[in-house]
Q: What sequence folds into this?
């Protein structure tokens, strides 16, 4: 079964993501993490979807082209607990 894509919705979602990442870029220029200097649920909640966008689509540049978002992503995605989550998913198949 072939999935149908709504190009207009994809483009709208990409624009929405760009707008959010621009806000994050500004926020992260002043703070280490989204809610301040400590890793919180605000950061944690971004791991699954951001991981997918960066690693499974051609839109990873939306993160890597933003200095502060890129730094933040590298830090949160390299946390040992997140790496453990990713490796446990591979072992459950």
A:
């Amino acid at each position: 079964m072939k999935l149908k894509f709504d190009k207009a919705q994809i483009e709208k979602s990409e624009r929405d993501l760009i707008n959010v990442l621009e806000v994050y870029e500004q926020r992260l220029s002043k703070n280490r993490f989204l809610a301040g200097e400590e890793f919180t649920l605000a950061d944690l909640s971004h791991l699954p979807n951001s991981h997918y966008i960066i690693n499974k689509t051609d839109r990873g540049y939306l993160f890597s082209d933003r200095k502060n978002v890129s730094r933040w992503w590298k830090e949160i995605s390299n946390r040992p607990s997140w790496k453990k989550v990713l490796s446990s998913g591979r072992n459950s198949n």
Notes: The CA atoms of residues 33 and 76 lie 9 Å apart.
